[in-house]
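Handout, section 4.2: multi-component inputs.
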Amino acid sequence: MNPCLQVKNISKRFLGVKALTDVSLDFYSGEMHCLLGENGAGKSTLIKIISGVYDATEGEIVYNNQTVRFQNPRQALDAGISVIHQELSIANDLTVAENIFLGAEQRQDFKILLDRKRMNKEAQDILDFMKVDIKATQIARELTAAQQQMVEIAKVMTKKAKVVIMDEPTSSLSGHEIKALFEQINILKKQNVAIIYITHRLKEMFEMGEKVSVLRDGCMVDTFQIADVTEKELVASMVGREIKDYYNRQEHVAKEELLRVEGLTGKKGKFKNINFTAYAGEILGFAGLVGAGRTEVMEAIFGAREYSKGKIYVSGKEVTFKSPAEAINAHIGFVTEDRRRTGLMLNAMIKNNIVLPSLTKNCKKFGFLDFKWEKDVSKDYVDKLKVRTPGINTVIANLSGGNQQKVILAKWLLADSKILILDEPTRGIDVNAKSEFYALMNAFVANGGCIIMVSSELPEILGNSDRIIVMREGEIAGELHYKEATEQNVIELASLNSKNT
Amino acid sequence: MKKFLSVLLCATMVLGLSACGSSKPATEGEADADNGAAEEQLTLGFIVGSREHVFYNLIEDGIKNASEELGFKAIILDGELDSNVTSDHINNLVAQGVDAIALSCNDPGGTTPAMEAADKENIPVFTFDCTSEVTDVVKCFVGTDNVEGGRLGGQETVRLAEAGQTVGIINFDEPQSCIDRRTGWEEVVNASDKGLDIIDIGNYEGDAAKAEQLMSDALSAHNNDISVVFAVGDPAATGALAAIKAAGANTKIIGFDGNPEAKAAILDAENGKYWVSEISQNPMEIGKQISQNMMDYLKNGSVAEEKVMIAPYIITEENAAQ
Amino acid sequence: MEKLKAWLKKNMVIVFLIGLCIGFGVTTDTFFTTKNVMNLTSQMAINALLATGLTYVIILGGIDISVGSVAALAGVFSAMVGLMFPEMSVFMSILILVFSALFIGTICGFFNGIMVTKFNVVPMITTLATMTIARGVTYIITGGTAVFGLPSQFSWLGAGRFLTSESHPNGIIPIITIFTVIVVALMHILLAKTVFGRHVYATGSNMQVAHLSGINTSKVILQSHILCSIMAALGGVLVASKLQNGQPGACEGYEMYAIASTVLGGTSLAGGSGSVARAMFGVAIIAVINNGMNLLTISSYWQKVVIGSIILLAVIFDMSQKKKA
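Output:
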């Protein structure tokens, strides 16, 4: 059988820096071919070349036995190559159906007016088929990140693509949504579609993939049949060495109480009767499905969301935060789940991001900025947290996800946070950066800090938390000590109907 | 609090809109109408160039006085110096069934179709201040003789300047009236035997601050050596005055319009050294004359003269106080 | 060499401005005379103040198109207040002008800011409403007539000059220039060197991040709108002072020049970046073009075409730089 898509000796240079060197790969119809590699290994560059975003410096692409050279993504799309990006391209103010048919709107017979009815119906059919709880007539803004991802997938499904590229499609999905996605992938495979799949989650590859190619520093390392390879071997070829245990579990000692939440109940039923206590020196994990209300609880604690009932105590004193500013004054820091949207000023320099919450307390007389202080503390934290960057004046958009996350951490450490809320702290970060980030978390709690970590990645929760609180549909479904927690019982708590327990 | 603020907002918006839109008919005329015998009373529609200019406000006053004197109902609208708005007003007046329409035709090209349409409906159309040369439906035009006014400005210029000196003009290139003033001015200044050197200071676009800038640039370019400047409108004269004083020049100003600030400046000990002369229009008279001619036409089917030119006059220190 | 290239790219406006000045210096005899240069600085003053205020609002990702109308309102207001004090001293006149600017600016800016922050009206619409309302109020309180009859002391700030000499009996350095330089410098320092300024950048860069970092973004937006309107009002009272009378039709369309200057100076309409100092280069470019072309007696229509084209070129250049980066 001929490959559906071949990449031959592709190299790509950006302003003299080599992003890809002599990469050759064959993709076959009906197969899921995974691309694996640390961030910066060249996966994104490779798919951007395939999908017509970039032009290769050297080499060629053969598609359906013809050498092709796409000038832009539109041409690739028309030729049958669809991409689901990591960063969603959802138009927030359009309906779900309009998003799904964006650029391929269905028109009525006289070709001017949009056929909304038909669009809505067909979109709903697809969404129902995918078994996701989204209405075609909903406005995209109202959807969660996970739901928006499903809309992206639905969008690709309507285009009769021969090659579908998925860049971390599951990074914001949970449980049954991932399952629904995998069902779709299986259908696509049966329809003889070649799937190129990028993920950091090895588990998914083993579950769904046929082949996996590992990239490192812009070069092809190897291609394996998934059936013949182990997880350890893959990780080793990715980082060039074997990582025994990247979670590196540490035992923490819980000390005094820092945060107590009693009967916290949100508006519009987002969460109900939340009770928990968090102690200095521990990592408290919050597990649950996407949409279980974990983020909303954290926002309420941080003063960024109104709640209708309940009490919050910080170090034993009752508090009511009207704004994040007050929470920050009470030494709470919040690393949000979407760092590009709510975590960083992307176009600002590293130092500007780090000092932002601490400016008011560290200025000179009359509110003048202390530039020397800004420079010194930024340098200090960049060194301490080993942020890989040319300098503190680098624009943060130019850093990799892991390093961006470290900068956000630095920002809250500088703000003198005692309680650090981390929401999906390692989403979209490569394995190496993850383990570095976990080490920083451990150091923080060892110094008497308290971390509350919301995560949808079970290994992350199980590998780091001292205690695990599982939320389901806005309520606390149970609490587990890490020694008694397994993937099995966490998932059960998170997804079983409460009537059955 | 929110409710209060939104009410406040609504109130301000309404206030603001009624202040600047001003496209609703002036109610005074109508109020008068309701008292008398409505059937016999004629209704006349007027569209003034812009309510934002004193000049047109004075014309409006003249019309209102005439409506009381001659006993007609006046609907006065604001054309906002926009041919589109003006055309809409004409159409609306036709729809309301007025007996005659008079407008200040600031943009003849844009309003001609609406004027001709009104004429076809047998509603006679009159013009004041500015008229249209492109259509023959206009029954009568009452306006300032701007060319003559320009000539008066020219006479004053020649009187004030000495032989061989440089004299300048600040223009406003869009309104026909200002173009006419320039034509008349240039005619006289060119014809004079003093051999005056004419410079074009620029188009001030109705903005006093812009006139100030143009004047100060012109003074720099000519080392303050400008003997007389003729401003085609009072805002231009105001701007020129500031520029001349700042530059320490000794240029004399001749303004045009006859606005109150012009008279005040001429009488002022300091400003009167520069602003020495003013060509004044007679807007109240225009308002009165146009009303008179419309009534004549509606009664007799004709007017005495198709073009009534109200002569401008010169204001100097001697007669400014009147 | 590389460094020079990078500098040139970043500072194209400065290079362009110098080029323009050289060009006009060669084609006219008068461009570089002391008198003209001083005139030029005084001509820049109004737009400089408007652009300074706008820089704040535009960095926030907003816009204020009411600056021209607010200026006109403040101008006639100051003239009307001035009429109440026929015997005013120079010091008194400055008090009247500054008080009028603060008073009108605060009212208009507060209104804009509250609409944007509390009622979530987009800045374009809010300030469009303010533009119309302020202009309307201006005509209402003046009845469409200029406010005149002010004593000459009233024009000290707007038209006065320092350093009289024999060749310059009226003085050399316009007081309006000095006043503007001081105000603009203070506003530059406020934006570039203080926590408040940094909060403006942060809010414009990413409002959610700023909020979650403990910044009261509504307050920052409100304060910036007030500052912007006060700057506009200051510009307006200076026009009134310069002309020694209050013109209800003053400053019409000035918002466009001010926005253009800000954009020419490299402030991005998307928010998050920009600087007062750089906006001044934009102000200078527009003033130099106007002044130079006046000296060459080129028609004002052509000036508009030229300025419009330059703005377009600047934006295209800016976009192409961003794309490459």
